[in-house]
Amino acid sequence: MTKKEFVELFGAKAELKTKVEAEKLTKAFLETLEEVLVKGDSVAFIGFGKFEAAKRAERTCINPQTKKPMKIAARKVAKFKPGKNLLEKMNPVVEKKAAKGKKKSK
């Protein structure tokens, strides 16, 4: 989904009158989220998920073209951990079948 498609869907769900309003709200949300992550903080939406800034350590890897080792510098990355509700909606639980042949012991 492109940003344009997302903004249109967002505007329709929020019952906004114009696409300009939807674009403005989307931009404000993304800028705010970006500011928080750049500061190194996290944002948690209960049930949806958590956005957080994390540090990735320096590491060594092999350049596939030259086969020589090269270093990748340490840096900050953004991470997203989905919440329970989002995971359940993405992965609906199929009815669990009762285990056959197992009896409770007294």
What does this entry look like structurally?
- The chain is α+β, with helices and mostly antiparallel strands and 106 residues long.
- It is built from 3 helices and 5 strands; from the N terminus they run ααβββββα.
- A 3-stranded antiparallel beta sheet has the order 1-2-5.
- Strand 3 and strand 4 (69-72) form a beta hairpin.
- Helix 1 crosses helix 2.
- The termini are far apart.
- The mean pLDDT is 89.
Write the layout of secondary structure elements.
Layout: H1 3-13, H2 19-39, E1 42-45, E2 49-56, E3 59-62, E4 69-72, E5 75-82, H3 84-90
Antiparallel strand pairs: 1-2, 2-5, 3-4
Helix pairs in contact: 1-2
Protein name: HU family DNA-binding protein
Organism: Fusobacterium mortiferum ATCC 9817
InterPro entries: Hist_DNA-bd, IHF-like_DNA-bd_dom_sf
Shape: extended
Residue windows where pLDDT falls under 50 for at least 5 positions: none
Total E-strand runs: 5
Largest sheet, spatial ordering of strands: 1-2-5
Radius of gyration: 22 Å
Number of helices: 3
- Note the gap between the termini: 56 Å
Protein structure class: alpha+beta
Report helical residue fraction: 25-40%
For the sheet with most strands, the description reads:
3 strands, antiparallel
User: What is the residue-mean pLDDT, rounded to a whole number?
Assistant: 89
Secondary-structure element string = HHEEEEEH
Protein name: HU family DNA-binding protein
Keywords: DNA condensation, DNA-binding
Family: Belongs to the bacterial histone-like protein family.
Organism: Fusobacterium mortiferum ATCC 9817
